[in-house]
Design brief:
Type_1_exporter; ABC1_TM_dom; membrane; ABC1_TM_sf; ABC transporter transmembrane region fold; mainly alpha
C-alpha cells in the first residue's frame, strides 16, 4: 500500500508500477486497468440506453436542438439547387426578376441556416453543461461510497481521469455527438435527394467514390480505435503519476526519491507522447483521404457533366449544383 491516496505511482511502494520497457508493455495490456474486451465494442447499444435517461429532463431543449439542426440542414442543402436553377432558368435567359427572386430566397435560406445553427448550439450548450454537472455530481457521490480496497487498487490520478476526462467525453457524446450524427444523416439524405432529382445518371457517377470511402474508413477505424484507446490509457497513467507525486511530495523528499520519480515520470510522459503522436498520425490520414475523394468526385462531375453540357443534354447550372453538392456530400 502506498503512503498516500491509494496506488503506487511514484510512492514508497513501487512493485506494481511499470517502468522502462515494462511501461510500454503495460500500456499494451491496458495500463489503466482495462483491456480491449472491457473497453467494449466500437458501438454498444446497451451503454447508449443507459446514458439516454440523462437527456430526459431536457426533452424540450433536445426538441429545439433537433428543430434547429433540421432547419440548418434544409436551408444549407437547398442553396446549391437554387443556384443551379438561377443559372439555367434565369441567368441564361436574362430574366432579372427571376434572379432577384432566387437572390432573395438565398438570403432567406442563409438567415434560416444561421437561426437554425444558433438554436442548435444554444440548446446543446445548455443541455451539455447540465448533463456534465449531473454526471460529475453522481460520479463524485459514487466515489465517496467506494471501499478503501478499491482506492488502494486504483491510483487516485486514474480515478481523477475518469471524473474529468471520461465524463466530459460522455457529455459530448450525449449532446454534440448525437446531434451531429443526426445532422449528418439529415444532410446526407437531402444531398442524395437533390442529386437524384437533378439527374440520376450524374448522381450515380458521383456515388462511384462512396464504396472507396467506406472501405478506407473501415480500414482506418480498425487501427484508430486501438490507437485512441492507448492514448486514453497513457494520459490516465500520467495523471496518476502527477497526482500521487504531488500529494506525496513530502514522503518523496524525506526518502530522497526525487530523481527516481523524475525518471519514472519522464518514462510515462514519453509513453503518453508516443501514444498521442500515433493517434495524431492516424487522424492526419483522414482529411487528406476525404479531400482526395472530393477532388475525384468533382473531377467526374466536371468531365461527364461537361460532356453532357456540350451535347445539350444537361444544363451548366446542374453541373455547378452537382459540384457544390459534392462538397457537402463528404
Amino acid at each position: 500500500m502506498a503512503f498516500w491516496g491509494g496506488g503506487t505511482a511514484g510512492g514508497w511502494s513501487h512493485s506494481h508500477y511499470p517502468t522502462g520497457r515494462s511501461a510500454g508493455s503495460a500500456l499494451k495490456r491496458s495500463g489503466d486497468g482495462w483491456d480491449d474486451d472491457e473497453l467494449g465494442k466500437l458501438y454498444d447499444h446497451s451503454v447508449m440506453v443507459r446514458l439516454l435517461p440523462y437527456l430526459k429532463p431536457y426533452r424540450g431543449r433536445v426538441a429545439l436542438a433537433i428543430v434547429g439542426m433540421l432547419a440548418f440542414a434544409a436551408a444549407s442543402m437547398t442553396q446549391p439547387f437554387l443556384i443551379g436553377l438561377a443559372i439555367d432558368k434565369f441567368l441564361q435567359t436574362g430574366d432579372l426578376a427571376g434572379l432577384n427572386v432566387i437572390g432573395g430566397a438565398l438570403i432567406g435560406l442563409a438567415l434560416l441556416a444561421w437561426a437554425g445553427q444558433w438554436l442548435q448550439q444554444m440548446s446543446t450548450a445548455y443541455i451539455g453543461h447540465n448533463v456534465l454537472l449531473t454526471l460529475r455530481t453522481r460520479m463524485f457521490d459514487h466515489i465517496q461510497k467506494l471501499s478503501l480496497g478499491f482506492l488502494d487498487r486504483n491510483e487516485v490520478g486514474r480515478v481523477m481521469s475518469r471524473v474529468q476526462n471520461d465524463v466530459t467525453v460522455l457529455q459530448e457524446l450525449l449532446t454534440t455527438g448525437l446531434l451531429t450524427i443526426l445532422a449528418d444523416f439529415a444532410g446526407l439524405g437531402l444531398v442524395i435527394f437533390f442529386l437524384l432529382y437533378l439527374d440520376v445518371q450524374m448522381a450515380l457517377i458521383t456515388f462511384v467514390v462512396v464504396p472507396l470511402l467506406i472501405v478506407a474508413m473501415a480500414f482506418w477505424q480498425s487501427r484508430a480505435r486501438r490507437a485512441f484507446i492507448r492514448a486514453r490509457q497513457a494520459i490516465a497513467i500520467v495523471n496518476a503519476n502527477l497526482q500521487e507525486n504531488v500529494s506525496g511530495v513530502r514522503v518523496v523528499q524525506s526518502l530522497s526519491r526525487e530523481e527516481e520519480n523524475i525518471r519514472r515520470f519522464d518514462q510515462v510522459n514519453a509513453d503518453n507522447w508516443s501514444a498521442n503522436v500515433q493517434a495524431g498520425r492516424l487522424t492526419a490520414t483522414v482529411m487528406p483521404l476525404v479531400e482526395l475523394l472530393v477532388a475525384t468526385a468533382t473531377a467526374l462531375v466536371v468531365i461527364f457533366g461537361g460532356l453532357r453540357v456540350l451535347d445539350g443534354s444537361l444544363g451548366i447550372g446542374v453541373v455547378i449544383a452537382f459540384a457544390l453538392y459534392v462538397q457537402r456530400f463528404f
